[in-house]
Amino acid sequence: MYAELLPALCCPACSHSPLTLLGPLEEAGEIVAGALRCSNCGAQTAILDGVWDALGDAPVPLTPTQLTNYVPLTARGYEPAWRWTALSIMSGRHFPLREELTLLCELIQPQPGNVYIDVACSAGLYARALAQPGLIVGAIDHSMPFLREARRLSLARGQRVSYVRASAQALPFRDDVARGVAMGGSLNEIGDQQGALREVHRILQPNGVFFCMNLVAAGSSWGRVLQRLLGAGGIDFPLLDELNQSFTRVSLERRAQWIWRVVAVTLLRRHES
């Protein structure tokens, strides 16, 4: 992880900030080892191999689908074997990765000096797309194998992305800290969706933006059968109305939305009542 993200963090145990960096070992400007200590509750969490482990030994509820994310082979093969063609397969149209990432950046409109967070980042695809010079980019996931792969990919491109092991329902970031948040495909398998969306709202600045790509319930009978089978593994496919109600309940206001078959791309902002 990188020092510029430190002011955005808070204690995963008591939400106090700032945290104190202990015994850092740096390589090429990256903090590859050390610890973060909370002066309020004394909790200490490790930075190892460039990843801040804010979860530590805390239990993480895992579905069968989420358990596969702890297999290193899954992490290494996810992008080349699936992610490059996923939206074309599921949307029923030619939807290259380049178009998805261009849409992400055009809608979030990242500006230098601001913080942007990729939640449930998997192999860090969105984080790498946002990692432009002058931006502060963090990416979180509960799977250490995926975080290691994400870090490997960003380092290979010379990009500054700070990786954090954490739960999407307990983001170790200060309130109102992020100008933009992105989530690509993970809302379907994240478990407590409302809890994760509440956290997105909490860490967003007033009028901050949230880019969410996820899958919705299929319209065809065979599609619904397939989704029911996948649902047994812990993947949820909400009806479009249910998805939008979930956003509204946590005061995330829809600014734009596109639907291609079962693929939904939604741009939201933090609504202030």
What sort of overall outline do the alpha carbons produce when their principal axes are compared? globular
Quaternary status of these chains?
Answer: single chain
The CATH class name reads Alpha Beta
Mind telling me the C-alpha Rg?
A: 18 Å
Task: Describe, in short, the structure shown.
The protein has 273 residues and is of the alpha/beta class. It is 32% helix and 29% strand. α2 (72-83) packs across α6 (144-156).
Fold and architecture overview:
The chain is globular. With 273 residues, it is an alpha/beta fold. The model has no long low-confidence stretch (mean pLDDT 95). An eleven-stranded mixed β-sheet has the order 1-2-3-4-7-6-5-8-9-11-10, with helices on both faces. Helix 2 crosses helix 6 (144-156). It has helices at residues 64-68, 72-83, 86-91, 97-108, 125-130, 144-156, 193-203, 221-231, 240-249, and strands at residues 19-27, 30-38, 44-48, 51-53, 115-119, 136-141, 161-165, 178-184, 204-215, 252-260, 263-270. It has nine helices and eleven strands. It has a single domain (58-270), classed as Rossmann fold (3-Layer(aba) Sandwich), CATH 3.40.50. A hairpin with a 5-residue loop joins strand 2 and strand 3.
